[in-house]
Design a protein that fits this description.
The protein is an alpha+beta fold. It has two domains: 80 residues, Nucleic acid-binding proteins (OB fold (Dihydrolipoamide Acetyltransferase, E2P)), CATH 2.40.50.140; 159 residues, de novo design (two linked rop proteins). Helix content is 31%, strand content 22%. The strands form two sheets. The protein has a five-stranded mixed β-barrel. A three-stranded antiparallel β-sheet has the order 7-6-8. Strand 4 and strand 5 form a beta hairpin. Helix 1 packs antiparallel against helix 2, helix 2 packs antiparallel against helix 3 and helix 3 runs parallel beside helix 5. It binds zinc ion. The site of zinc ion has 8 residues, from strand 7.
Length: 245
């Protein structure tokens, strides 16, 4: 079977001296692992074939059989639309973290075309982001979109324990990863993993506010990273770059 599609590379692993295993996030077929033969550069000048890198994006041709674990990447024509990512380490780290999260939470051959488009928008927007707070805000927006896409949106309408509806007059509000949502002050003592939130951060989680101070965004990002770690039963590798104070 041949698949012609658009794709982002979201993970690479060296397989042999000349080959890589690449994980591709395709527009129409979702996540697909493939072997890319002859693409691994041994020395920068030794080969005309260039390595497929994480965040490469372009048109590809894959061939695969129904029961094969790995497809074969036969063509990959990379376009350079997101070159701004590599001009700033914070942008690049945010993009690689998002790619790692897609890889972690999507199943193979499970199409998510809407998430594909949102990932493309996210990458384009962070290419233009100059301040760390802007990069964080865009990363958080994409992470919330991804959680919605996989059916794991955090519950923010009511306290997950007593079901009391949330409103901005609550004297305090907390987030519990284990409970998957917010907890009120009366119930918080029963949730050992709780972290304090505030009304603005809840609005960001609900996609009804877009800006906040850098310190607030950092605390929300830390909560989201904890939540992803809880869902995946392990920390994302790139999380360490976003836990600094
Ligand atoms: Zn409660």
């Amino acid at each position: 079977m041949l698949l012609k599609d658009k794709a982002f590379c979201i993970r690479t692993v060296d397989y042999s001296e000349t080959s890589q295993i690449v994980t591709l996030f395709t527009l129409t077929a979702g996540k697909i692992s493939a072997i890319a033969k002859g693409t691994r550069k041994i020395k920068p000048s030794s080969s005309s074939a260039s390595a497929v890198e994480v965040l490469s994006c372009g048109s590809l041709v894959l061939s695969y059989k129904e029961n094969d674990k790995l497809a074969v990447l036969t063509e990959f024509e990379s376009s350079a639309v997101y070159s701004g990512l590599r001009k700033n380490l914070d942008r690049l780290n945010a993009a690689v973290l998002a790619a790692e999260t897609i890889d972690k939470f999507l199943k193979e051959h499970d199409p998510h075309p809407e998430l594909f488009r949102k990932f493309a928008v996210f990458l384009k927007k962070i290419c233009d982001a100059r301040q760390y707070a802007q990069i964080l805000a865009k990363l958080i927006k994409f992470q919330i979109e991804l959680l919605a896409e996989i059916g794991s949106s955090p519950l923010t309408a009511v306290c997950v324990n007593c079901k009391n509806p949330y409103n901005s007059k609550w004297p305090a509000v907390f987030f519990s990863c284990a409970a998957g949502g917010i907890v009120c002050r009366d119930c918080e003592s029963g949730f050992s993993d709780r972290t304090a939130l505030n009304d603005k951060l809840i609005k960001i989680l609900n996609n009804t506010a877009v800006s906040a101070a850098e310190a607030e965004l950092k605390s929300l990002e830390a909560i989201l990273l904890d939540y992803f770690a809880y869902l995946a039963a392990g920390q994302l590798k790139m999380a360490r770059y976003f836990r600094r104070l």
